[in-house]
Amino acid sequence: MSGALTGDVAVGTELPGRTVHGVAVDHIAVMALVLQDSNPIHWDLDAVRSAGLGDREINQGGSTLAYIQADLVDWAGSRSAVRSLTARFSANVFAGDDVLVGGTVTAVTATDGGVLASCEVWADRTDGVRAITGTAEVFLRG
């Protein structure tokens, strides 16, 4: 994708958004290994139940945040365009959940060679629970 055009970006512009269908148990387990995350809630259902967190494996928060980052990169056309990303984790994403991510431009500042778009971003489980809220600064070339 070539990225958003600066002339098309204004306060209120919606990011394209994306849906991750059925967060996979295998992906959660692989990410636990890659991240060296020893918390058993990512692969051990007994640990999930013992912690009172339900009966499905829990996706790593960083993996859910990566869905937002991927949406920003697709929109801007470059990983280097994402200048900052902050997040507040407010709910778990479980194996099998569908996750919808998106955002809205809240400010646009002209800079040399383009604009800096300030955005509110989020990740929702499709049952309506908001798992992540945050902000991002994205540079869009003119």
Automatic annotation (TrEMBL):
Signal peptide: none annotated. Residues 23-108 form the MaoC-like domain. SUPFAM superfamilies: Thioesterase/thiol ester dehydrase-isomerase. InterPro entries: HotDog_dom_sf, MaoC-like_dom. Belongs to the enoyl-CoA hydratase/isomerase family. This is Acyl dehydratase.
